[in-house]
Request: fold
Amino acid sequence: MGYGSYTATDWGKLKASRKITDSSTEQVFKAQSCSPKYDPRFIGNREARDSEDHPYSTPIAIGVDVTGSMGYLSAQIIKESLNDLMLQLYSTDIVSDPQLMFAAIGDALVDNSPLQVTHFESDIRIAEQLLDLWLENRGGDLPEDYELMWYFLAKHTDIDCFNKRGKKGFCFTIGDAPCHDELTNASISRIFGDKALTPYTSEELANMAMQKYEVFHIVIGQHNHNFETIIPGRVILIEKTDVTYLADIIIAVMQYVKGLSRDTILSGKVELVRSLLTNVLDSLCIENNGEINF
Reply:
């Protein structure tokens, strides 16, 4: 996947055709069940391939908590953050040939479909597939299963940037709840259709995903989380009001991983965004040479 290019014009046309103007999440996400196209049980691998259009593909996976307390975030992403992110990715050229995959993340213990994943795409299909996801809206503020995303990336993605060039993609998970401590054999079988001899801890799964991806988690409005023990130095704390700047946050982290200086990253930003991004960068253990340190 990953052909074509994203344009603001295409987004405007899609937004108009889908009547994405209301603030209600239900007006944006209308699916009433999980489509087999996005169900991990029916997916072998998601592929981020080089092509004539995009010879140096960079996969970017964004997983969003879609349980009851987080429905507003999904609407925010599709109405504003996605367009901002894609336009910034193309304008800054910080990574080559970006290909985005979105995931809807829930709770393996209570949700019928605790993980849904789109294809890696480079054009308006990013938004079209995101709109097709089912917001189950169960769960709440209890631990959720962000580790499902890490398992999928480690076990069920095939990416040319790593296979051909030894370069990693990017993974950002976003939510307001802690992460479950482990992924059980039973959950692996039910959700992915895979056989596992032993359960995996969330830390093990994060480390597995980090073989191919730079993994980060954005915590919204909650400080009682356990991510610093799972992915130390890769946790970003923001408030609900900062969700507006998700695109700026993601771009800034990618730029810093790539080795850009703080001055370059913050240049031209208004004071509010400069302050937010300064706090974000302060929370990460990243050197300016692009290497993650722990």
